[in-house]
Amino acid sequence: MSESHSTELPQMLHQDLTELFQALGSAQSPTAIHGSLAGVLAAGHRLSKTDWLEWVVDQLGPVDPLTENQQVMLLAFYVSTVKALEDSGLSFKPLLPEDDSPMTLRLEALSDWCGCFIGAFGTVGVLAEGKEIPQEVEEILEDLSAIAQIDTESDDSAEAEEDYIAVSEHVRMAALSLYLEYNKTNTPDTPKQTLH
After folding, report:
1. C-alpha count within 13 angstroms, C-beta hemisphere, residue 82
2. Which of 8, 145, 182, 186 is 20–30 Å from 87 (CA)?
3. Could you tell me which of 99, 92, 116 has the C-alpha nearest to residue 11?
4. Which of 53, 73, 147 is nearest to 109 (CA)?
5. Is the pLDDT assigned to residue 65 strictly greater than 90?
């Protein structure tokens, strides 16, 4: 991962995190962790440094304690995801395998990301029984749920590539729409909620 001297952190690459997770002895995919994290953030919740590290370590189940460098990378992963969601230029995108990966692998990852996003989004109380959910939000969640169950068998044709690009862009905009809907009141003076 290249260093950046700007104040904006670029989103981490799938390959960087795959290598980190493998070094930790974890079978978790970066896509699943990113989908879950994005779902929690989109629902308006924030995690303290300690809470994030405890949560991600619980998810990853590393064989050894984290080194300082590994902690720094995981914290950068969190911060870069928050910054991308907050970016007025809408730079956020789901963390998926690189474009030269086989189509089946990318479709599986997109499906996994959507499932993890919805699961995490729902765990933080936004969808609690009795709470009124805007129709637009219901439609977005239905779309993401359908994509989470997408048929991942595909060829690497130009048509399949076009379809994948269109669906992944739809997922990106859906996540941003939910983020904008549930993060309207997060100002510097608003206490940030944490996930327990």
Report:
1. 15
2. 145
3. 92
4. 147
5. yes
Q: How far apart are CA 193 and CA 99, in angstroms?
A: 35
SS3 assignment, position 149 = coil
The first and second tokens of residue 94, run together, are 């789901």
69-116 pLDDT per residue, tens:
999 999 999 999 999 999 989 999 999 999 899 999 999 999 999 999
Interacting residues of 23 by C-beta distance below 8 A, sequence separation 6+: 70
SS3 156: coil
pLDDT digits (tens, 9 = 90+) for 139-189: 999 999 999 998 878 777 888 899 999 999 999 999 999 999 999 854 444
Residue in this structure with the two tokens 């076009």, named with its chain if needed: 162
Domains in the chain (CATH in brackets) are 14-182 (1.20.120.740)
Q: Which two tokens stand for residue 5?
A: 């001297």
What single string gives the DSSP state of each residue in 15-78? HHHHHHHHHTT----HHHHHHHHHHHHHTTB---HHHHHHHHHHHH--SSPPPHHHHHHHHHHH
CB count within 10 Å of CB 84 equals: 23
Residue with tokens 């981490």: 12
Cα–Cα distance, 59 to 2 (Å, whole number) = 26
Q: What pTM was computed for the model?
A: 0.86
CB 113 within 8 A of CB 34: yes
- Local structure of 193: helix, strand or coil: strand
